[in-house]
């Protein structure tokens, strides 16, 4: 597995160990991780800090020129909020661990010119499957169901 | 002006007085404000807390059934991030102060069944116009330009 997706998966595993929702993400600019994060719904009671949002928040304020040279790695297909954020900042490429347990707004992203790569990582799938089986209500809350 | 849009405008003015980006929002459930907020880019160095996101964050974790009975009020047309968040949580209606200084993803929202009402408030327009004239670089950063 690519080192950046591996870093995102490590974030997801940290979230799982904290009793949270195991989705992780890293924002990469020219082979350097600018920010990493994981879903903070449980840990911080946050409704906006999905993994991708947390990674962006931890990367801090960046000029548009930087975002336009970034790749966002995430263990799970990005939901409408995270996809909208990718569009807001003009991030040109997203690498997704898997979309079997949840299909996000990949078509919207592609229709707006974002390059979307789905790795289909079995390790990412298994982590989410385990979590969803253990805490289905928490998972539904996170995706507005 | 509607009392809830007025509350959102008060949030926006608070943001302006703090030296921040003057966009405010309130989340309303059955005639009660669940959360209010304003853009926190300057105040907290946040790249995710737009006014709408801050209002949702301050409303805290809510079940999907509550979001589906809410109206989100915002002084400015919602950007892709905030629009995606509206879609994620299934908020059925958005009341927008104005869309003259920035046109957000109103068409995407409508295409997904969200009711979008644009008040076209002169007071909202003037506050944004003053801010954009004073701090154009900060404004561009906030919308990824």
Automatic annotation (TrEMBL), chains A, B:
Transmembrane segments: none annotated. It is found in: Cytoplasm. Keywords: Cytoplasm, Hydrolase, Metal-binding, Zinc. Its main location: cytoplasm. Its cofactor is Zn(2+). Pathway: Pyrimidine metabolism. It holds the Pfam family dCMP_cyt_deam_1. GO terms for molecular function: diaminohydroxyphosphoribosylaminopyrimidine deaminase activity; zinc ion binding. GO terms for cellular component: cytoplasm. Residues 1-116 form the CMP/dCMP-type deaminase domain. GO terms for biological process: nucleobase-containing small molecule metabolic process; pyrimidine-containing compound metabolic process. InterPro entries: APOBEC/CMP_deaminase_Zn-bd (IPR016192), CMP_dCMP_dom (IPR002125), Cytidine_deaminase-like (IPR016193). It comes from the Bacteria. PROSITE patterns: CYT_DCMP_DEAMINASES_1, CYT_DCMP_DEAMINASES_2. Homodimer. This is Cytidine deaminase.
């Amino acid at each position: 597995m690519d080192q950046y997706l591996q870093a995102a998966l490590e974030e997801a595993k940290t979230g799982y160990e904290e009793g949270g929702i195991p989705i992780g993400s890293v924002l990469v600019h020219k082979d350097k991780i600018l920010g990493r994060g994981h879903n903070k719904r449980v840990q911080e009671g946050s409704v906006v800090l999905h993994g991708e949002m947390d990674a962006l928040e931890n990367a801090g304020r960046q000029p548009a020129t930087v975002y336009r040279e970034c790749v966002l790695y995430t263990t799970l297909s990005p939901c409408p909020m995270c996809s909208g954020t990718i569009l807001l900042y003009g991030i040109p490429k997203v690498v997704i661990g898997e979309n079997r347990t949840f299909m996000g707004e990949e078509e919207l992203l592609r229709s707006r010119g974002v390059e979307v790569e789905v790795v289909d990582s079995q390790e990412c799938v298994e982590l989410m499957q385990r979590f969803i089986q253990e805490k289905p209500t928490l998972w539904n809350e996170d995706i507005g169901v």
